[in-house]
């Protein structure tokens, strides 16, 4: 009887909940206090400019549309993503800003949900642990911040998880998924290098082909819409470089301590990360089970980034998150540290530069959890973490 009632009312309830969510989202995202810090306006403005013959990298044109959308800014919030991102923004540029913002919000939720569900399928050892990625994804402070700010980083999570899952049996599909990492390639530079090296080592050209097809197709479409777009992108970097950004990165704090004018310091951490990657592959070949580690190291050493960019860390944290049925003191310590780090990011409001420690702190947490053997899919201290099981699961699903 109850099952019959549930089957009758579930769709009306789902539709009612969706309508309520849309109505609330429209009211919230059009509030001046929210618009003032909403980054989606830059994506909407760029999408509208490229379909109307404008320059999506021109600050004056961007500012005019951002003000028209209702954002009270004196200086344009510039789009710095490469031109191959623009085809993704075109559908939103065709819509009025309020409708586009609601759809963008819903797509963020879908991206997080899909990434969490896929991680759950890859990592789950029981029905209960299947929900762990969902809990992490929708309580992780950087992910919530990305959804609130309308940042494009959320769409990189499905790309990373999809590549992890597809590579063992479908390298071409993995290459297509990896194209999403090129939305902000500096956040996943070691992940991309590892996937490329692994495809070469295993003689799987399908990955490079898939990545090339996606990148070429998106770039060609952007150039078709605006033949000058790549020249405009390079011009923007020459004329209005983001060299004054006080980003919460190790490079940012180095510049703050040693001199803001020393822009080269911004790139010292990624050079160190690259050096460590090269040293590592000299002694052992790159492998898929190490992708969570390279994800965390990429985020900790990125040249540029903000706290919401740490959304990608979900793919690194889930494989090593404590699941032991008999909790130990170390288990409690890891859970407490996770809650403390997450709480600080969620409930404090400092200038972004003072969160420079966030990326390295999550890397340290990852290494501590991995070293403790917190992941049930790996032996104590293994570099593989739970992603070894993920690769096997992806291969099994791909063969069906």
Automatic annotation (TrEMBL):
Residues 378-400 are annotated as: Disordered. GO terms for molecular function: hexosyltransferase activity. It is found in: Cell membrane. Keywords: Cell membrane, Membrane, Transferase, Transmembrane, Transmembrane helix. Signal peptide: none annotated. One of its GO terms (cellular component) is plasma membrane. It is a multi-pass membrane protein. InterPro entries: GT87. The chain crosses the membrane at residues 88-110, 131-156, 176-196, 208-234, 293-317, 329-347. Belongs to the glycosyltransferase 87 family. This is DUF2029 domain-containing protein. It comes from Candidatus Thermoflexus japonica.
């Amino acid at each position: 009887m109850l099952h019959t009632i549930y089957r009758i009312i579930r769709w009306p309830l789902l539709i009612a909940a969706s309508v309520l969510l849309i109505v609330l989202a429209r009211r919230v995202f059009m509030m001046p206090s929210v618009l003032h810090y909403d980054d989606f306006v830059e994506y909407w403005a760029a999408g509208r400019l490229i379909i109307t013959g404008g320059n999506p990298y021109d600050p004056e044109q961007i500012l005019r549309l951002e003000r028209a959308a209702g954002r009270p800014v004196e200086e344009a919030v510039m789009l710095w993503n490469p031109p191959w991102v623009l085809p993704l923004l075109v559908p939103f540029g065709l819509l009025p800003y309020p409708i586009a913002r609601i759809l963008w919000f819903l797509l963020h939720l879908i991206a997080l949900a899909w990434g969490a569900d896929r991680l759950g399928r890859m990592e789950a050892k029981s029905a209960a642990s299947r929900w762990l990625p969902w809990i992490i994804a929708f309580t992780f402070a950087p992910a919530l911040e990305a959804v609130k700010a309308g940042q494009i980083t959320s769409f990189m999570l499905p790309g990373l998880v999809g590549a992890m899952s597809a590579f063992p049996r479908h390298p071409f599909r993995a290459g297509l998924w990896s194209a999403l990492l090129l939305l902000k390639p500096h956040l996943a530079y070691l992940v991309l290098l590892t996937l490329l090296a692994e495809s070469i080592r295993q003689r799987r050209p399908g990955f490079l082909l898939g990545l090339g097809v996606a990148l070429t197709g998106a770039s060609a479409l952007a150039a078709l819409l605006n033949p000058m777009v790549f020249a405009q992108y390079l011009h923007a970097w020459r004329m209005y470089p983001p060299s004054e950004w006080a980003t919460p990165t190790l490079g940012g704090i180095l510049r703050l301590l040693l001199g803001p004018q020393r822009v080269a310091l911004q790139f010292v951490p990624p050079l160190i990360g690259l050096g460590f990657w090269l040293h590592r592959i000299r002694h052992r070949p790159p492998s898929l089970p190490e992708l969570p580690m390279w994800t965390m190291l990429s985020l900790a050493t990125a040249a540029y980034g903000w706290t919401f960019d740490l959304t990608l860390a979900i793919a690194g944290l889930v494989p090593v998150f404590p699941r032991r049925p008999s909790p130990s003191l170390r288990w409690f310590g890891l859970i407490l540290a996770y809650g403390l780090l997450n709480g600080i990011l969620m409930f404090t409001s400092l200038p972004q530069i003072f969160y420079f420690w966030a990326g390295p702190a999550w890397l340290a947490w990852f290494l501590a959890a991995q070293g403790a053997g917190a992941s049930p899919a790996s032996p104590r201290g293994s570099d593989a973490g739970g992603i070894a099981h993920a690769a096997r699961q992806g291969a099994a699903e791909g063969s069906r």
